[in-house]
Amino acid sequence: MKGETENIPQSNLQILYKKLQRNEERYRCIVEAVTDYIYTVKIEDGCPVETKHNPTCVAVTGYTSDEFNANPFLWIHIVHEEDRDAVIKQAERVTKGEPAKPLEHRIIHKNGLIRWVKNTSVVCYDEQGRLVSYDGVISDITERRQAENKLIESEEHLITLINALPDVIFLKDGKGRWLATNAAAQKLFQLDNIDWQGKTELELAEIQPHLHLQQAHITCKDSDDAAWAHGKRFDRIEIIEDDKELIHFFEVTKIPLFTPSGKRKGIVIIGRDITERKNLEKQLLQAQKMEAIGQLTGGIAHDFNNILTAIMGYGSLMRSQIKEDNLMKTYLEQILSSAEKAANLTQSLLAFSRKQIINPAPINLNDIVRKVEKLLKRLIGEDIELKVILSDMDLNIMADSVQIEQVLMNLATNARDAMPNGGVFTIETKPVSIDEEYTKRHAYMPPGVYALLSVTDAGIGMDEKTKERLFEPFFTTKEVGKGTGLGLSIVYGIIKQHNAFINAYSEIDKGTIFKIYLPMIKSEIEIKQAKVLPPLKGGTETILLAEDDINVRTLIKSVLQDYGYKVIESVDGEDALERFLENKENIHFVLLDVVMPKKDGKKVYEAIKAIKPNIKALFISGYAADIIHKKGILEVDIDFVQKPISPNDLLRKVREILDRSSHKPSVPQY
Fold first, then answer.
1. N or C: less crowded end of the chain, CB within 10 Å?
2. What does each C-alpha distance from 438 to 16, 441, 502, 517 come to in angstroms?
3. Residue 333 falls inside a structural domain
4. What are 238's strand-pairing partners?
5. Helix and strand numbers, DSSP H then E, in the chain
6. Residue 229: CATH number of its domain
7. How far apart are the C-alpha atoms of 587 and 600, rounded to whole Å?
8. 294 lies in a domain?
């Protein structure tokens, strides 16, 4: 260099030197002014020997240039230990003159905080091509990294939330190609093992035709096009069939997406499966229909029971006065028998819509089966064989025979529908003894002796899921319009009312067996004793009769008067209270209709009892049990009988109450 400058005039050398000084000063000012941390590493014989750092190193690392110069290993020391190997390898490549890409890594600031930096290195060579140094620029990218991490975390949270939603969500472009989906959509359309991105429903249908994606395309295309064309939100109900040919109802919202410039770029589709809600709506409509039928039936039953009370009552009075050899008595017996059947039919009709008051009495289970056997044969049809196997011994139970007959009819109907191609329907009775060991395995059933009623069909059977919901109200596996879903729930309710137990056993294509365990009473003597009715007795007491139906009132008045009672009749609740106040000293007994104009029976009774606490009373009604229950009659300490009731039964009940000491009366179970 010296030899080259000897021939240069001194003045020119001075000019060059000043320019060099100015350039170095200018370079130094730039380096010190930039906000990035700039360093230079001098290399001799391939090894770092000296480093220089601009003042910004303090802002980025917390350490000064002097501190870095005093400790050549300080820089490596402050690099985060998880990133240290990568930084060392990059330094080795740069030292060897190899190109190196910018490296983002963490450092530990002097204050102990972790900072993210971007480290970019540039190598320098001399005239002979030897590596003499490399320069580096370190940018603090902590804020950018934090923002990126927050964005990534936010996206992960959003994806997690979207995938957790039960709603089906997916994104299509303007040509109907699928761009993104959530987990619910992938599950519905079984997309786990399908390359679905960028494909339309028709293209996916070619891959998996059984997914009914072609039908989904036909169903959804019009609303897709409408949302795209109008650029507005679009709501509708869409129906899609799955691979098991089950119908799904979806409440669909379609929202177009736009670029910042306002250009349409896709459609977000959100579908909520409302199949269960639709089914619940159907069940609600069914429940409302059944409630309306129940209310109608209850009103009809009240009037019908009043009519039957008059028919059976006057018929009984006529029978008592006709001689045995009179042909008219035979006709009258037929009338009374038909009236009794009509009364039983009314109770059976009510059982379909609401719980009834049950009137348990000692009875042989075998007798119930024999009584209903012929009816069941007509019910199940000629293509089904009815097989009845009854126990050799009497199975005496305390039960309402009408209700147990209803159980058999419902189970027979269920079996008939389960055997569309015919088969064998078997009813079997036998005694069983439940011991402590069985009770340990079946905690719901206490030990004791039971009459087992087994009802078996050779039908299509049920799976486990169906058995779990078997006794739920409105649950049915039958086609729409062919079943209410109430039959087995009525069976369950009746069995529970009898303190009995029911189990169902079934397998697909292997039929179903229902086992009903009815507690047996101790001996046949109980039945014989229970069937012995006390003789009819009259009396001389004064009875207040409150009944708004003139036919029933006239009948009851005649029956009571014929047996010596004095009767004060009233036509409604207020009239009954007035008649009592006029004759309170003489009245021993009140016979009150539950539902009457102006004031119901319970209110009349409460007013009378407040005046005369020891008054004896009997409620009577032709309304269904739920109406009686709502009136609170079953909650008060008083007797109740349901219309229609025969004159003899009414006379025995009145005499029983009048002769009874003041203990809690017996009432029918509810």
1. N
2. 113, 5, 15, 13
3. no
4. 250
5. 23, 22
6. 3.30.450.20
7. 19
8. no
Give the containing element (helix H, strand E) for 51: strand 47-53
Whether the Cβ atoms of residue 600 and residue 578 lie closer than 8 Å to each other: no
Q: Domain residues for 599?
A: 534-659
Residue type for 129, please?
G
Q: Tell whether 58 and 193 lie within a shared domain.
A: no
Q: Domain with 615 in it: what CATH number?
A: 3.40.50.2300
Q: Looking at residue 85, what is its pLDDT?
A: 93
pTM over 0.70: no
| Most confidently predicted of 233-247, 338-352, 368-382 | 368-382
3-state secondary structure labels for all residues of 478-503 = CCCCCCCCCHHHHHHHHHHHCCCEEE
Q: Provide the pairing of β-strand 168-172 with 178-181.
A: antiparallel
Let me know the angle formed at the C-alpha of 570 by 641 and 650, rounded to the nearest 5 degrees.
25
Nearest to 617 by CA among 599, 604, 630: 604
- Both 84 and 218 in a single domain? no
Whether 287 maps to a domain, the answer reads no
Nearest Cα to Cα of residue 547 among 643, 455, 636: 643
Cβ neighbours of residue 278 closer than 8 Å, sequence gap 6 or more? 249
pLDDT in tens, 387-410: 899 998 888 998 888 888 888 888
CA atoms within 13 A on the CB side of 343: 21
Please check whether residue 510 lies inside any domain of the structure.
Answer: yes
Structure-token match 């219309």, residue found: 643
**Whether residues 127 and 199 fall in one domain:** no
